[in-house]
Each structure stands twice: as C-alpha cells, then as structure tokens.
C-alpha cells in the first residue's frame, strides 16, 4: 500500500505543473500534495486489479478522484463552511493562500479531474469512459458530496437523528468511496455483477470510515490527528459518538468490519487481499 | 433566438427538480433560471445545426454549458471574490441563500454539468462524447475560467497592461464561448476543419462580448444593466475603456464585428445566419 501511495503521489505531482497563474497552481499543489493517505486512489486501483485490469488503466481515474476529494476538503474548510484552520497537520488552504484562491483552487480541481481522465486514459473503449463520467459526476453534486456537506452545515447546532446522520455520511463519504471501486471495476473490464459486489463492499467501508473518524475526533488530540480535535463537539455537529455514545459507536465499527469481511468472501482471495487490507487500515487508523 | 431561449429555459427548468436538500436545489434554480440571455446554449445549438446536426443532439451540452456559466457567476459574486450584490437585476445567490450555500450551489453545477451530458445525450458515438468532455473540462479550470477569474482578482488595484487584460478576458469569457461552438460542431458531426473555423469565429465574438460588457459598465446605469454599474471603475479593475479609452474601445468593438462577418463568409449563408445574428446581438446589446 505504501508503494501504491508513492506512485500515486508521483502521478499527482506531475498532473499539476507550476505554470501560470503560479499562485493558483501552488494553492492546488499545496492541498493535493499535503500527504493524505490516498485511500481513494488505492481503492480505485485495487478494484481495477480485482477484475484483472492493469494499474496504469486506473491511474488517471484514481488521481482524478483524489483531486475531487481535495476540492471538497478545501471548500469544506472555508470560513463560510466549517471554518477550519488545520488539515493534515498544516494550515488550511485559505489560511495560506486566501479565501478567493481557495474557492478557485477547489473549482479548478472539480473540472480538472474530468479533464485528467478524458486526456490521460488510453486503450479503453470510450463507452467505458462515458460510464465513468456518469458515475463520478453523479457522486459530487447535489446528489452526492455537495448534498452531504450542505445537510451537514444545516444540521449544526440542531438535534440530529441517526437517519440524518447517515444521510450526511453516505453523501459526504460513502458515495465517493463507492465511485472509487465502481470506476475501478468498470475501467478494469469488470461486469455488472462485479460492480454490484464492490458497491456493497464500498457502502460498508464508507460507513466504517466515518464512524472511525468521529471516534478519533473525541478520543485523540489535535497533534495526534493533524487537524483540530474535538471540533465536532464544539460546533455541535452530528457525529456517531454523540448520537449513540462512544462505546456503541465502537461496537458499530466492529460490526461493520465483520460485514466487510463477509462481502469479500465471494472474491478470489489473493486479488481481494488489498481490499481486505484497506478495510482493516480504515478500521484501525489512529489519525 | 427568443424561441430557442424559451426551449432552453424549459430544459434547464426540468434539469434541476426541487428535491432534497430543498434549499440547495432552490439556490441552484434561483441562479440558473434568473433569465440570462442564454447566449452560450444558443451558440452551441446553432453550431450543431451549422454542420447539419439536430437541436436535440446539442441540447444537453447546451444546458450543461449554461450550468457551468452559472456556477462561475455565483462564485464570482461571492464576498471573497467580486463581492457583488446584484446579478441580472436580482440579489446575488449568497445574498439570498447565504455564502456556504452559494459556494455549494456553484460546486454542484460544476459536476452536474458533466452528469447531465453523460446521462442525457443519446444516439451519439461515445468517442464524440469523450472529446466533448475533454474540450469542456479544459475551459473551466486552471487553464480556463478559473485562471481568468484568479488573474482578474489579483489584478485589482494594480496597473494592468493590455496583454494581461486580454489574458483575463480570453480565460473568463472567450474560452467558454469557444467550447460552445466546438462542442456544438463535434456533437453535430462536423469535421476538424469545421471545428477550426468556428474556433476562430468564437475567439472574435469572445473579445467582442467583453469589450461591449466593459463599455456598458461605464456608459449605463445599474437599473439599465440589472447589475451594479460603474463597479469596474470603483474597484480599479482592468477594463478596455480604462486601458484604451472609451472611443478606442468602441472602435475596437466595430473592428471585431467586421472580423466576425469575414470569418463566417466561408459557411453556407442560411445555416450560418444564427451565428451572424448572435454576433450582431452581442455587439449591439444594451445590458
């Protein structure tokens, strides 16, 4: 996984050269290359390989998904949104480059992701690419990431039901993870059955990811997390520990991990190993 | 043209239904259906018809381009950008729905545009669609719209050369207009030669559009324009009248209109008529 992440970092680095306008591209590079865990691109590549596709086939899509994720982080951190000062242990994009540049860097990523796929995916029939565009674009906007962030912000300071909480996490986190595996399988040449199987896998790890994130927010310090800890509590934001209590949230994470293992049982064990491993890493991460 | 605009308005209305989360979709509809002139979608459809394609083929792309344009307007108006209160005679998006919703509505449009094309364009070979995705995505990000807005904001309060001024307008305005005609010709089944011809046409009307916009800003009132007049002057922003004087700017507009007429001379006159007419409308608009 560390090797995959290194390759992905290299490709991301090359994708955004330092061209004119310099400060805009610096701002994009600052957040894109801030050392995330690259869970999403690794997931995309692993899903491509799961159905026999080569890593290189999935790489442009994997990088594009990390760009989309980065765009959502930059915009989520804005003063008018979550107003966050720290991200991945560094000052947030608008703290370094100013608010207008942060808005524009996010906007640029949202379109560059599609450009990167359209211009760098070779040796793939165009109908597969069109399916990928449909899948990926649908998880970003008002039926995906944006909807999740919108409901999240609207829910601040209000009593939030478990149903609303799940809506937020499905849209903010799970749908993009689902797109990672689905796009990986499509580009790798998988069939509709393969797609359905990885969709279910992704839904479980999506939930798992968020539950663990929420638990870390209340159990770790800012230094350990590399971002402002305890912030969800202060802002009265919906979290699993808040709704169900910290012990029940930990039980829920354990239950989800068991479900993930069951979902992968029907795949070739060797090829599914990276997807097992990823779920394990998500469940056991410390920041 | 009025008939085309009416059809486009109907399709845009249907494209964004009032679903959950309601306020986000209301915010999107507010700006999308605020009664713009629909120059871009009309240009896209006219270019499709120029090469013998049917209006219905180009409609999803035409609508998508209007969504991208709307996203850029919403974000340009934000307090951290141009901080504008009026747009098309109505309060700007963030004035009505708040800043965070305005950021998210813009983000949603940037991805929904691609979703709308991928899911609604029928009876077209997927390789044409991939070309359209490449063309369209490249004019939005850090080589297009976003770059133009970035340099525009950075140049405020500074002395701006004609070269910088043209960079801003090419990126903020001309490139998207160029994408309108190029995508229209691609989806309509035009060849590379057709594409090159309409590219040049689009570059001239792109410049024309901005020169006229700048002239209107200093010669018309806010009520006449439906947006805050004289704002470019107050904010010390780069404009053609500022750099070359109002009379020379008017001469430049006249020269550009002549160039447009020359570019279209090589096309079938009847089929090129809507493109002539559009250029004429751009040159002679009063708001």
From TrEMBL, chains A, B:
tRNA processing found in the keyword field: no
Any single Gene Ontology cellular-component annotation: cytoplasm
Keywords assigned by UniProt, alphabetized: Carotenoid biosynthesis, Isoprene biosynthesis, Magnesium, Metal-binding, Transferase
PROSITE patterns membership: POLYPRENYL_SYNTHASE_1, POLYPRENYL_SYNTHASE_2
Gene Ontology biological process terms from the UniProt entry: carotenoid biosynthetic process
Species of origin: Gossypium hirsutum (Upland cotton)
Family membership noted in the UniProt record: Belongs to the FPP/GGPP synthase family.
Molecular function in Gene Ontology: metal ion binding; prenyltransferase activity
UniProt pathway annotation: Isoprenoid biosynthesis; geranylgeranyl diphosphate biosynthesis; geranylgeranyl diphosphate from farnesyl diphosphate and isopentenyl diphosphate: step 1/1; Isoprenoid biosynthesis; farnesyl diphosphate biosynthesis; farnesyl diphosphate from geranyl diphosphate and isopentenyl diphosphate: step 1/1; Isoprenoid biosynthesis; geranyl diphosphate biosynthesis; geranyl diphosphate from dimethylallyl diphosphate and isopentenyl diphosphate: step 1/1
Pfam families: polyprenyl_synt
UniProt xrefs under CDD domains: Trans_IPPS_HT
Cofactor(s) needed for function: Mg(2+)
NCBIfam families for the chain: FPPsyn
Classification via InterPro entries: Isoprenoid_synthase_dom_sf, Polyprenyl_synt, Polyprenyl_synt_CS, Prenyl_diphosphate_synthase
Protein name: Geranylgeranyl pyrophosphate synthase, chloroplastic
Gene behind the chain: LOC107903152
PANTHER family reported in the protein's UniProt record: FARNESYL DIPHOSPHATE SYNTHASE
């Amino acid at each position: 996984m560390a090797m995959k992440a290194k390759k992905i970092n290299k490709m991301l680095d090359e994708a955004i050269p330092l061209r004119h306008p310099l400060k805009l591209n610096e701002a994009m590079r600052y957040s894109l290359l801030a050392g995330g865990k690259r869970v999403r691109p690794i997931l995309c590549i692993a899903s491509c390989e799961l159905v026999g596709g080569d890593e290189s086939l999935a790489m442009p899509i994997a990088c594009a998904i990390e760009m989309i994720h980065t765009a959502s982080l930059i915009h989520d951190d804005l003063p008018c949104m979550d107003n966050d000062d720290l991200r991945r242990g560094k000052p947030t994009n608008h703290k370094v480059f100013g608010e207008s540049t942060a808005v524009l860097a996010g906007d640029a990523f949202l379109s560059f992701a599609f450009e990167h796929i359209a211009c760098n995916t070779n040796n793939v029939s165009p109908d597969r690419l069109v399916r990928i565009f449909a899948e990926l674009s649908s998880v970003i906007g008002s039926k995906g990431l944006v909807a999740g962030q919108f409901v999240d912000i609207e829910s601040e300071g209000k009593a939030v039901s478990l149903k609303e909480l799940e809506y937020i996490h499905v849209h903010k986190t799970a749908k993009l993870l689902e797109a990672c595996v689905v796009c990986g399988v499509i580009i790798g040449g998988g069939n509709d059955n393969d797609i359905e199987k990885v969709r279910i896998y992704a839904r479980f790890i999506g939930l798992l990811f968020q539950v663990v994130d929420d638990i870390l927010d209340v159990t770790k310090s800012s230094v350990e997390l590399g971002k402002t800890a305890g912030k969800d509590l202060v802002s009265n934001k919906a979290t699993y520990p808040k709704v169900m209590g910290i012990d029940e949230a930990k039980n829920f994470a354990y239950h989800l991990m068991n479900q993930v293992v069951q979902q992968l049982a029907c795949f070739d064990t060797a090829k599914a190993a990276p997807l097992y491993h990823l779920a394990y890493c998500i469940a056991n991460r410390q920041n």
